[in-house]
Design goal:
heterotrimer, A alpha+beta, B alpha+beta, C mainly alpha, B: alpha+beta, four-stranded antiparallel beta sheet, 2 helices, 20% helix, elongated, C: Rna Polymerase Sigma Factor, Chain: A, 77% helix
Amino acid sequence: MKSCDEIRKCLGAWVDGELGRDEADAVRSHVEACPACSEERRQLDKLNVSIKSVLAPQRPIAFEPFWRGVERRINEKNSWRDEWMDRLRGAFGRPNLAWSIPAVIGLALVLYSLRFWKEPTPRNNFAAVESIDAYGRNVALLRENETRTTVIWLYQNQEGDDETSGETSEQSPTF
Amino acid sequence: MKLPGKLLSKALLSSFLALLVAVYLGAAETASQAVKIKIDTILASNQSGEFDSRLKPLEKQLKVLKYKSYRLLKEESQNVASQGSGSFQIPGGRTLIVSPQDFRDQQIALKVRLQGSEKPLLDTTLKLQNKGNFILGGPPHEGGVLVLAIWATLQ
Amino acid sequence: MELSDWELVQKCQLGEMGAFQELVSRYHQKVYIVVLGLLRNRDDAMEVAQETFFRAYRKIKSFEGGSSFYTWLYRIAVNIAIDTQRRQKRNLLDYRDNMDEVFEEQQEVAKDPFSDVHEKELREKLLSAINDLTPEHKAVIVLRTLEGLSYKDIGDILGCSEGTVMSRLHYARKKLQEKLRAYL
């Protein structure tokens, strides 16, 4: 006869349908007779439901843009690789390889120092948002890929007003 | 393979000098510096279809928000010292307080607070690319919403 | 008649891009869901999901059908996602993709503030607790709870035994329950 501790160790596997028939029967009999383990099973069910609702995405992703992204990688990597393979073949064939070593070291150091120079415009405009506290209000974060825009959007509360300013917005956003 | 002695010593010397320059520039990056903070205060609404021509440089970004009209209410810039803070008056009795923290890897760390007339509305910490911007929006104003476009540029 | 995964793989191995596109069409959603469950960031999940299929394309000739195609594919996806997690430190901020989602959420939030407050807290606590798990523990939770995969399949994907899957799941669920006792 298994103890509650032993039953709880395989409770998850039983709920998942992963136990053999005999073991599953033993666990089921125990859970039906034991209020504490029955409650444990209920908590586990609630946890599984909560995890699923929290982790599952709200909407499916469209196939076409996804496929275009995969195709682009396939085409880019093919041409990039072929070009560099040709160059490497050429470089290793030359007799003056020895002179290129100090040149490569010098170039690497120059490129490293260029990191610290100011760029005229940022290549990546995305802001890395590390924390947000909206003091109980709802807030949303948006990253729009095409324009590389980061938006922090503070929702109005339920009454549609900003309680500190007394203003209301009569219109809801449209799109 | 053996490099001639003179060439080797020249290569080593120039590499060492380049390294010194790189280290100096790297150290200068994190020294305290002022940051120019620019705020465009914009009113977005669906009451009309007008787009303020002064907002042309921001047009693509603002279109992301999907409102019909955008009007520039105010444009303001301040030079704010690192670890200091700059206050910007926002319509509706609000204030935006921006505090640059540090600058590393071409990114400016900022603390931003949107303050209501009595209580804070939002605090956020983020890292922005030098000369980059982000948008903070949502507070209601005059039948529309306020949209703040916030830039940070290292001085 | 619809071709089986293995038949499509064989066509891919002969160079038929259309067959590979069909495989992507069948599994892109599932791969994205698993990767999003692990990374909690949509941009990263999209990158990793697309990278998964790119790597599958490059390795397709080496797939011999020993495991099912989808466990082979999930193995690639989970490995990339775990590597990505180890390289990055991400907080739990969940980005939206467009303002439609932002505004729709505003409408939902306005409906019932009391249940939404509790649900919001539970959601935040749960996401935080899941994020505190190691990548390996997070992977078993995602593969079992979101995808309903068997312990055998999860073991094939993660390269471990069914017993290890069972004990990782037990540990991960126990950890989550401890942190969420007050909310469940």
